[in-house]
Amino acid sequence: MAYKVEKATQIADNIFELWINAPHVAKNAHAGQFLVIRIDDSGERIPLTISAAKEDLVRIVFMTVGKTTTYLSKLKVGDEILDVAGPLGHPSEIKEWGHCVVIGGGVGIACLPILAKALQDAGNRVTGIIGARNEKLLLLADELEENCDELVICTDDGSRGFHGFPADILKQKLEDKNIDAVWIIGPAIMMKITSMATIPYNVKTFVSLNPIMVDGTGMCGSCRVTIDGETKFACVDGPEFDAHLVDWDELMNRQRIYPEQEKQSLELFHE
Ligand code: FAD
Ligand code: FES
Fold this sequence. Notes:
It holds the Pfam family DHODB_Fe-S_bind. This is Sulfide/dihydroorotate dehydrogenase-like FAD/NAD-binding protein. The chain is built from nine helices and 17 strands. It has helices at residues 23-26, 67-73, 112-121, 141-147, 166-175, 188-196, 234-237, 248-255, 259-270, and strands at residues 3-12, 15-21, 34-38, 46-49, 52-54, 57-63, 80-81, 83-88, 99-105, 125-132, 150-155, 162-163, 181-185, 204-208, 224-227, 230-233, 240-242. Strands 12-11-10-9-13-14-17 form a seven-stranded mixed β-sheet, sandwiched between helices. Strands 5-6-2-1-7 form a five-stranded antiparallel β-sheet. A hairpin with a 2-residue loop joins strand 5 (52-54) and strand 6 (57-63). Helix 2 runs parallel beside helix 9 (259-270). Bound molecules: flavin-adenine dinucleotide and FE2/S2 (inorganic) cluster (FES). FE2/S2 (inorganic) cluster binds at residues 213-216, 218-223, 233, 235.
């Protein structure tokens, strides 16, 4: 069975959204979970977060960073994807926390709408904070306005919203001392730095880890991460973990183990 693309749109600089017909995923998807897709039988498998699910359709939002995401960005309505495996990973810990802050950096913002909605549905007050290098890289702000009680937009260059980083806004909010749980989703360095802000306040802080994944089922070991000194597989034990227990340096080193192969693969794709 192949999976048809029902909608394909560019939503920001180098960022695209696809709605894919995948009823088995759409009907069972929860916030925090992801898919592993393979476009065709010569393609690699890549993990992408489930950004939304509606009836038979599931949405992915991705940035073009290499061969497979570039290939995905060229798909049009009616094209087919060979494999869509999911939903994978543990859902986010949704319960009545009180006041939750959800923070997205760059393409990590894509993970927030489904999370913010689930938290609101569970009775929480939700503050969203989204950040990007500039306004052309901001995404899904209108949708998040609907699913958050309050949304703060930040850009590194001040081209829209607050001139600065989500961590600056988080620090201000933490001083008000009324935050019960925080989610931070984005590049590893952003998650590491932003999550440091909550340590002195002892606020439960989740991050969604993005190591290289291959099978997504706990068999290959490529997504190995260290949490509180213990080895975990992000695909089956995560992808969300307590931010304050993550070995960030190991994660960032392991994300960069195939730069030459990734470069060659993209060059061959463009030839
Ligand atoms: P490549 O040139 O192959 O790689 C570019 C960089 O992407 C690498 O240096 C590496 O850091 C990372 N990467 C490469 N292959 C993988 C892989 N198999 N698994 C994980 N990372 C890889 N990106 C999004 O844009 N949107 C999302 O919603 C999203 N959700 C993710 C959810 C999870 C659980 C994980 C682990 C990653 C997620 N990513 C997401 C990252 C995405 O999987 C990579 O950007 C993608 O695999 C890059 O493939 P490529 O061939 O285009 O680039
Ligand atoms: Fe293979 Fe997690 S991706 S064990």
